[in-house]
Every structure is written in C-alpha cells, then in structure tokens.
Amino acid sequence: MSEAKAPEYSRESSGHLVLVAVVLTVPVLKLAWTLGGGNAARDALTAMGPGNWADVVIGMFLNEPLLATVLTVVVSRATYGYFAAKGGALRHRDTPLPVTAATAAIVPAALGVVVGAFNGWGWGLLAGALGYLLRVAVMIDYTTGRRVHATGRRSGRRAETPLQHTADVLWIAGLLLGTVVLPVVAFLAALDGRAWTSVETCDVNTGQGAHRARLVELERQGNGVVGWDIADSEVVNGVNCAADDNETIRPRWW
C-alpha cells in the first residue's frame, strides 16, 4: 500500500473498528451498569445465553431513538464505503450519476423505514436522509477518482468542483459521526439506568414463599419468564406476570 493511500485506509479502518468495538462492549456495559455490577452482568448473560448477546443491542436500538438513528447512519455509510474501497465503485464508473445516486438510496430508505417503524417516522426520515447523504458523499469521492480503491485504481478523473468540496465535508462528517458521536451516544444509552428489555411484575418463589417482584425479563419460558430480580439481585423464574411501564432500574450514571 502506498503512502498516499495509507491515510485514507487508516481513517476508514478506524471508523469500522470503532463500530465493532461499540457493538461488542456496549451490551456488557449496559448489563453491568443497569443490573449493578460485573457479577450481575455475568449471571444475566449466562441466563440469557451467549448467543443472545445481540438482544441487548437490538433492545437498545428499539428503545433509544437517537442511538438507533446514529447507528443506522453509520452502518449505512460504513457498508457502502467498505465495498466501494474494495472496488465496488468501479462498477459505476460508466453508469450515469443520477442512476448511481438513485441506487445509493435503496439501503438508507430501507433502514429509515426500520427506524421509523420502531422509533417514530421523524427519526426514520432523519436516519434515511443522513444515511443517503453520507453514502452519496462516498459515491462521489470514488466515482470521481478522489479516493483510490484497494486495487490501487482510481475510478474516474480527479477534479476539484463545488460538489466534490461538499462531498469532502460530508466525508469528514461521516467519520466524526462514526468515531466520536456513535461511541458517546452508545455509552450514554448504556449508562442511563433504563432496561433494554421488558420489565415485569411477577410471582416469584425462591423457597421462602411466593411474593410479587419486579423483574427485568431475560428470556420467555413456558407461561412465565426468566428474569433479574431487581430487589434481590438474582436470576429467578417468574409467573403470572404483568407489564411494568416504568423501565428505570437505577439512576443515570451522570
């Protein structure tokens, strides 16, 4: 890899690494802070099953509109940038720009619908629009030759135009969104003290008689749930459950 290409790949790679780091660390942080410590997080994750790790991320996505929007925009841009850098943008070299721009709208539109369905159509529109703008910025840079592919080839003639200056601004905005804004929003959501899943009030019996307890649902099981007993700090089985609209488990970290 040439010295000229290294900074571009380094900046893009850092954004992808931050995205992976957020997805891996935020679920553990969410469990540990919300339930009261590392031991609690371990017990809850064991009860859920390691294969359900993503359930925490999905639950936060469904319950946190800002996080859902930022994560959607970052994923939309990162996936497009990854395949473009690997040479995917070369396919659009001879395609009219309006056609390429229309094609770039498909994924952001679909992701915007997902965000809108769960978090409100205003958030969905914002996610789709920002995702599209940042994908277009990537598309302009590669198809005009301002960025080089992993193959070392440029996809077009390098020229400076107002459109490409705008693309530069959007490129920087996309990197900041992925490397600064996403981690901040994700960690604030992890430390807000709210459950990532349903909170239920159930009948619980741990050998000392049945009583009503407030549980964080970890898994559905038969006619009840496996949940985290908030008062007693342990995993229990609950039956005859009723939904609790209050999702706050403990005060916010800040």
Molecular structure report:
This protein has about 250 residues and is α+β, with helices and mostly antiparallel strands. It is about 55% helix and about 15% strand. It has a four-stranded antiparallel beta barrel. The chain is elongated and about 75 Å long. The chain starts with 5 loop residues before the first helix and ends in an 11-residue tail after the last strand. The model is unreliable at about 1-10 and about 150-160 (pLDDT under 50).
How far apart the termini lie comes to 44 Å
State the major sheet: 4 strands, antiparallel, barrel
Give the amount of beta strand, in percent. Answer: 5-15%
Q: What series of H and E elements makes up the topology?
A: HHHHHHHHEEEE
Q: Please state the average pLDDT score.
A: 82
Let me know the number of strands. 4
Q: What fraction, in percent, of the residue positions are helical?
A: 55-70%
Please tally the helical runs, counting DSSP H or I stretches of 4 or more residues: 8
Strand order of the largest sheet: 1-2-3-4
Overall form: elongated
Which residues form runs of ≥5 with pLDDT under 50? 1-9, 148-158
Cα Rg: 22 Å
Structural class: alpha+beta
